[in-house]
Design a protein that fits this description.
Blueprint (H helix, E strand, L loop, with lengths): L18 E10 L6 H13 L4 E8 L4 E8 L2 H9 L1 H14 E11 L18
Antiparallel strand pairs: 1-3, 1-4, 2-3
Helix pairs in contact: 1-3
């Protein structure tokens, strides 16, 4: 899922472990007909999976796409993996949209985060 370019750049928060992550790394083909619509649909679908925590996405200038989706437990990840529309999109991806991809699934055992505090901006004195 990669329609995140319009969204503000905010990473998924660090959750209390354990939880699961699926790391999907792609190189796309030239023909991306229907990709954006399917991606938007899948993004809506995954949000309906109980236990879905969020998704981070990045795209390099060279074309490498990295999508990391987070799930509270293995059952939530399994439900997403078995979703009929998701399975159909996977088949279409192999047939049309991806030159290559890798998928890594991992159990997160440690998680932390940091957010810089906002400094209040007041009127400047002359």
């Amino acid at each position: 899922m990669s329609s995140h370019s319009e969204a503000p750049a905010v990473p998924v928060e660090a959750y209390e472990p354990p939880y699961y992550m699926a790391v999907f790394t792609t190189l796309r083909t030239q023909d991306q007909s229907g990709y954006s619509e399917t991606d938007a649909r899948l993004e809506d679908l995954v949000k309906g999976i109980p236990g879905y925590l969020g998704t981070d996405h990045a795209q390099t200038p060279g074309g490498l796409g990295i999508t990391v989706s987070y799930f509270r437990d293995a059952d939530a990840l399994t439900k997403w993996r078995a979703d009929v529309e998701h399975r159909a999109a996977q088949q279409r991806g192999r047939a049309e949209w991806y030159q290559s991809y890798t998928l890594h699934v991992a159990k997160v055992e440690r998680s932390s985060g940091f957010t810089r505090a906002q400094v209040p901006q007041g009127p400047t004195a002359d």
